Amino acid sequence: MDIKHFHFFDEQDLHSYLKPREGETKIGEKIAYGNDFKNSTAKFVLLGIEESIGVKGNLGVSGTHTAWNSFLTAFLNSQHTYKLNGESIHLLGNFNFQQMADNAKFVDDFRKLVPIVDVAVYPLIQEISAAGKIPIVIGGSHANAFPIIKAVSLAKNKAINVINLDAHADFRALEGRHSGNPFSNAKAKGYMADYSILGLHENYNSQNMLDEMAKHKGIRYFFWEDIYLRKKITFEEALLDFIQLNQNKTCGIELDTDSIEGVLSSAMTPSGFSTTNARYYVYQTSHNLHPSYFHICEAATELETGLKDNSTGKLLSYLVSDFVKGFLES
After folding, report:
1. If you average pLDDT over residues 121-148, what whole number do you get?
2. Which CATH superfamily is domain 6-328 in?
3. β-bridge mates for residue 8, sequence order
4. Are 87 and 41 within 8 A, CB to CB?
5. What value does the mean pLDDT take over residues 195-211?
6. Helical H runs in the chain?
7. Could you tell me the pTM of the whole model?
8. Tens of pLDDT along 285-295?
């Protein structure tokens, strides 16, 4: 199988990340890998997307291409136990689109590249979903939500619901592809049905976008300020409301790390959800909804501004572990 811009994980890759220790069994010692995911007994297929193109097309800070490697270092060296069985996961590999961006300088340059990413990503995700597996996609910008939603929708032959933990609705106008309009594109093209967003920040969602979302009866959201400043509803109540709305529906789970306080990301925030909130969100949605995919985006270990945080990969590892546990413990 040869897929443009995609590297299939192999034994040499595995050994470059794995740090075995006597008396312990690491996830990386039990995880399946390679291109034959269809015949794998694993339920989950894990892959990365290394790109910051969608971020730059949305006037953001580059760095989202750096998350995948740090995630692998943390995740593959997590403990394989009866609580987290490495054999339930198939590590497929990763897309790398950063070379395409080398000659891009202006916003329009990046926006012209994003559709190339879309076209490369969705067929593989569609194959994974059609094979009855659950794609877990790590890294890159939120622009990648569009090809993922498209892929699962085509595999299921219907529009799918989406829940998103995010400070931004990413439902901007369709003026070129970027990380600010994956969901408006998915809605316009009929791939996304209902859309639920938890934790929008009032300072960063325009009135025009809120007005546009109001035209669609299937779009619902809770502002972060209504949860924590006005105390109109608790975080747990808001999440339960969305879980009940999406019960027994084909649904994908999105998590933008921009929503988590202090996490290095393209639009990192000093005020937002805690890491505990984020982990609870992932576990509960996975446990109660049996989602069709899980996508974590916008995280970075190094930004173009020079900021670095090596703990990002460990947080992503926790989130993937929580998703797998939530699903399997249902």
Report:
1. 97
2. Ureohydrolase domain (3.40.800.10)
3. 93
4. yes
5. 98
6. 11-17, 27-30, 53-56, 67-76, 107-130, 145-156, 182-188, 207-214, 224-228, 235-245, 275-289, 312-328
7. 0.97
8. 999 999 999 99
